[in-house]
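Course assignment 3, question 2. Fill in each field.
Student: A.L.
Task: Predict the tertiary structure for the chain below.
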Amino acid sequence: MDAFLKSYFGRVCTEMCYQSHDSACCTREGITTFFADVVINVLMSPDEAVDALLQVLRLQNLGSKCIYLGTRGCLWRVKPIVCEMFLCKPARKKVFDKEPGALKAWERLKRRGKRYTWPNRPVLFDDLETYFIEKRYESSLMYCHKSPGLLRLKAQAKK
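Answer field:
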């Protein structure tokens, strides 16, 4: 996903959002972070990167931007899937109108993303939460096991 975004959307997103300060994807309340996002990021990050995330979480975020958005971009080594999979409508139009191959690649990536987060069947994010729950760890970010909406979808899928 990172390579796809850099290749097709890097310049577009930089110009349309970050330079103009109109970013919709990195707004203060703009992301949902799953517990599995945190686990994967911590596993893939050096200690100093994890320490930087913990440091910003101790700060009060009075601004309009995401607390994880630093001066050199996102502080996450492996960004939350909600962030990675978000492409605003104007950016999609600008890129996909010029690059039909990008649209096909995007559709493949969206299908692949469902292997991690699709709520009505067991997926990686659900499995990671289950592992930690079995170890008696609890987090408000365990949406696969705590979100009423996701639990309802799971129950409907079992019928």
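Instructor remarks: Residues 120-159 form one domain. The beta strands are 69-70, 73-74.
Grade: pending
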